């Protein structure tokens, strides 16, 4: 591991904005949070994967993976992050290094790949991702990117987050560090307003940002930059001129929010766009921060009027579902901000939460769960597939909401399952998203397929009849 990468990892481990670090001694902070994974337990992704997840939603830049083609194949399109315009991010670029590159080095191949991308695609910037193999053979992507920037007159950004550096969450933060080191603060917006905000840690999964942006537009608030959902390179580069910021997922990009507050005096708060109550609170907090930074006082009145109208509209649309979903029990296997914000959202329509995963949640997330649910009994630190299966099979839950990796546990137990993680095809943010989430839960629970799959198969009925005759 290079000295530069090691220093960056140590800086991320020592992140003062991380709530876990706040309770540690200096020595404990330097050890970091990474622990060795047991064989077969690395399915959550590596540091390279985390960096790619965090930065690929910047839609107009070319994302070049310096490594074997399998690294690009495994990381491309791993989230349904949508774009309202450019589609450069949808093209997979890789240097596809081979055995000879391992022997002689891949720096020349990387330089040629950058030149070819600029010649053919002409993006505003190129992001170059280091991988395990190229890091181990000693390729200096920082030097190559610096030379390419000088030669071609375009920003070529090194993202030094090889997979062996750690887990996906570390990669999120290392990708964010690349933005802080090379992108943020390098350009200026055409104009600024007292209503400019940044949204940090939002990836526009299935278009969720587009469900929130009309609300902000109605308030008169401008999203100067979203880091990084549906983002343009230039927007990220001038994001340092925002008046306030909202942190959507602190597990991924707390270092961006904290360092921008430190360097550019941009105050931030952590909020959620899931659930009626939480989105209303987030809109109020955005207005409050902007007023504190000099926006007119009438912004709060506009915000309250918008909240009143949108809440009334949402509740009217949710009313038909309340009787059908009252008392239904949900097992929620997710993490981060969703571990509490989705809990609050579901409880609003009378759904009971039998358990929520906190494996990827911060201490603040856990405190919010306790606040909402009353105790720690419903918090699941790390539930094994066997335990999930038993809970569903014994009908302690009526439906499971989780990511794609857990779906087969529910299907094996012949229980309803709904995708709530990044691979989903529906957007659940904002008031509109809350209605959609409840609608999808209702459709999944009452799908007639579950009645069919739980019936005994014809040969099982024949066997039962034969046994009855034999004992008859």
TrEMBL record:
Residues 46-445 form the Nitrogenase/oxidoreductase component domain. The keyword Transcription regulation does not apply. Keywords: Nitrogen fixation. Pathway: Cofactor biosynthesis; Fe-Mo cofactor biosynthesis. PROSITE patterns: NITROGENASE_1_1, NITROGENASE_1_2. It comes from the Bacteria. This protein may play a role in the biosynthesis of the prosthetic group of nitrogenase (FeMo cofactor). Belongs to the NifD/NifK/NifE/NifN family. This is Nitrogenase iron-molybdenum cofactor biosynthesis protein NifE. It comes from Aromatoleum toluvorans.
């Amino acid at each position: 591991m290079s000295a530069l990468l090691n220093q960056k990892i140590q800086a991320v481990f020592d992140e003062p904005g991380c709530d876990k670090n706040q309770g540690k001694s200096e020595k404990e902070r330097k050890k970091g949070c990474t622990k060795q994974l047991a064989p077969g337990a690395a399915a959550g992704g590596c540091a390279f994967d985390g960096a790619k997840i965090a930065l690929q939603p910047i839609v107009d830049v070319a994302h070049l993976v310096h490594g074997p083609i399998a690294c690009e194949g495994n990381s491309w399109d791993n989230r349904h992050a949508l774009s309202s315009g450019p589609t450069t991010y949808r093209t997979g670029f890789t240097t596809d290094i081979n055995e000879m590159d391992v022997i002689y080095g891949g720096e020349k191949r990387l330089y040629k790949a950058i030149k070819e991308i600029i010649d053919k695609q002409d993006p505003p910037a190129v992001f170059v991702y280091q991988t395990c193999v190229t890091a181990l053979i000693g390729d200096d992507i920082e030097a190559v990117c610096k030379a390419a920037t000088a030669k071609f007159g375009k920003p070529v950004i090194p993202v030094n987050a090889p997979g062996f550096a750690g887990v996906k969450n570390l990669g999120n933060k290392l990708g964010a560090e690349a933005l802080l080191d090379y992108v943020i603060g390098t350009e200026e917006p055409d104009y600024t307003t007292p209503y400019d905000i940044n949204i940090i840690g939002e990836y526009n999964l299935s278009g969720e940002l587009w469900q929130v942006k009309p609300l902000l537009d109605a308030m008169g608030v401008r999203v100067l930059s979203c880091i990084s959902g549906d983002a343009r390179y230039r927007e990220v580069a001038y994001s340092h001129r925002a008046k306030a910021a909202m942190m959507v997922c602190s597990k991924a990009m707390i270092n961006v929010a904290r360092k921008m507050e430190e360097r550019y005096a941009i105050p931030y708060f952590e909020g959620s766009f899931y659930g009626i109550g939480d989105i209303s609170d987030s809109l109020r907090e955005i207005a409050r921060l902007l007023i504190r930074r000099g926006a007119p006082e009438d912004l709060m009145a506009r915000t309250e009027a918008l909240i009143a109208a949108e809440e009334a509209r949402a509740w009217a649309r949710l009313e038909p579902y309340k009787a059908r979903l009252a008392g239904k029990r949900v097992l929620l296997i997710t993490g981060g901000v969703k571990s509490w914000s989705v809990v609050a959202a579901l409880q609003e329509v009378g759904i009971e939460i039998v358990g929520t995963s906190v494996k990827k949640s911060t201490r603040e997330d856990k405190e919010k769960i306790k606040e909402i649910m009353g105790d720690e009994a419903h918090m699941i630190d790390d539930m094994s597939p066997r335990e999930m299966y038993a809970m569903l099979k014994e009908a302690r839950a009526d439906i499971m909401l989780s990511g794609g990796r857990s779906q087969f546990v529910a299907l094996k137990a012949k229980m309803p399952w709904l995708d709530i993680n990044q691979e989903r095809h529906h957007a659940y943010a904002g008031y509109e998203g809350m209605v959609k989430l409840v609608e999808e839960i209702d459709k999944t629970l009452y799908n007639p397929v579950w009645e069919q799959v739980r019936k005994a198969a014809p040969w099982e009925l024949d066997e039962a009849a034969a046994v009855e005759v034999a004992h008859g």
